[in-house]
Amino acid sequence: MKYHQISSALFVKNRRKFTAEMKPNSVAVFNSNDIYPVSADSTLPFAQHRDIFYLSGVDQEESILLLFPDAAYENQKEILFLKETNDHIAVWEGEKLSKDRAFQVSGIRTVYWLQDFHKVLNEMMTYADTMYINTNEHYRATVETETREARFVKWWKERYPAHNVAKSNPILQRIRSVKESEEIDLIQKACDITEKGFRRLLSFVKPNVTEYEIEAELAHEFIRNRSKGFAYTPIIASGNNANVLHYIENNQQCRAGDLILLDVAAEYANYSSDMTRTIPVSGKFSDRQKAVYNAVLRVKNEATNMLIPGTLWKQYHIEVGRVMTSELLGLGLIDKADVQNENPDWPAYKKYFMHGTSHHMGLDTHDYGLLHEPMKANMVFTVEPGIYIPAEGFGIRLEDNVVIQEKGDPFNLMRNIPVEVDEIESLMNS
Q1: I need a labelling partner for 200 at 20 to 30 A (CA). Which of 333, 347, 362, 376 fits?
Q2: Pick from 260, 263, 313, 268: which is nearest to 289 by CA?
Q3: Cα 175 to the chain's mean position, in Å?
Q4: 164 vs 161: CA distance, rounded Å
Q5: Residues 201 and 266: beta-carbon distance below 8 Å
């Protein structure tokens, strides 16, 4: 790992929150992700399953966490299982977690090697009545590959059919969505690294630079600041490419007079940031580009102020839609007749702003959170309105990450990243 070690106190708190919601006399198990093959002996870089990381801090493949809060003995309440290391592994792959090191990372004292898992699990299951299975139920999830977790769940249910089955996901959706102060600090670190990358670009971008050169500059800055790299596949969309919402080719030349939509951000310690900025290739916005840009900025600012405890996500988006409608009328992109005759299920503003404004973020870029429940303090949301005008050859989106406060305005984790037209132009031309 490149990041500084996180205090085990965070993971101790996270486990307490989870086990407090478990049914009496129940066991929960969480698995690491697979290392996914490409072909021959090639694999994708390992990325830890966010749930076991959230509950243990363990960032290593082939690890398992077992929680049994009502176990008869203290050393059975929390158990880690790790791949046993040896001299051969140390030579070829580097150091793996020892039992002592695993305790330092997680705060869990009982650590076994992986080969003991089935024996220990069988003993725990003879005492337990309910097993908590961990399934991916995120509203955006489309999973076509059978994961290590999914294979285990299938085996577990077949092996112990007499036990009651409960789901970990509803608990995790709630507790992961409300961040501890340590988590907010880690997201802030990811945002700060993102800021470094963005500021680097402002002096680098010029006519005829390519989108992939911009991507390379960002990757350089992110990695040199202890990030693994991008929190998600970067979008570097010049000109009309910005009107493709998930444009990831990043292979075109940036032309003088065009805008570049940059939906790019760093991760840090598995926590995501999620930034979008739109900048002029030539270092100066045209009058029309500036007018649309400032309209998007006003929507972003008004939407941000709506993110307070008690806000309902669905109603919030209706209110943001009204603000966007007003701005589009001012820009002449829609007229009053368009609004009067609009389809309530697809309002007039959707022609130019077709996606949502905010989503939860944290360990995942689109993080856990139940959208039908009111917003709470210490939830972290994106705010990302946009206006997309294919007929005029550009699209503009602006995005910040904000923390809902118990009282007062949301706290903008990207408050130091330039967003005003004058500041961007000044930095690009300095």
Answers
A1: 362
A2: 260
A3: 15
A4: 8
A5: no
CA–CA separation, 430 and 427 (whole Å): 5
- Per-residue pLDDT reduced to its tens digit, 70-126: 999 999 999 999 998 777 776 677 778 999 999 999 999 999 999 999 999 999 999
CA distances from 15 to 38, 55, 68, 178 (A): 34, 5, 11, 14
SS3 at position 165: strand
Tens digit of each residue's pLDDT (9 = 90 or more) over 391-423: 999 999 999 999 999 999 999 999 999 999 999
233, amino acid identity: T
Whether 390 shows a pLDDT value over 90: the answer reads: yes
**CA–CA distance, 149 with 136 (Å, rounded to integer):** 9
pLDDT of residue 91: 66
Predicted TM-score of the model (pTM): 0.97
- The C-alpha torsion from 405 through 408 and 409 to 411, rounded to 10°, is -40
Q: CA distances (Å), 35 to each of 41, 136, 423, in order?
A: 12, 18, 44
Q: Are 201 and 210 in contact (CB under 8 A)?
A: no
Phi, psi for 399 (deg, rounded to 5): -145, 130
Going from the C-alpha of 231 to that of each of 83, 172, 221, the distances in angstroms are 27, 21, 13
Helix (H, G, I), strand (E, B) or coil at 411: strand
Pair of tokens at residue 88 = 């051969």
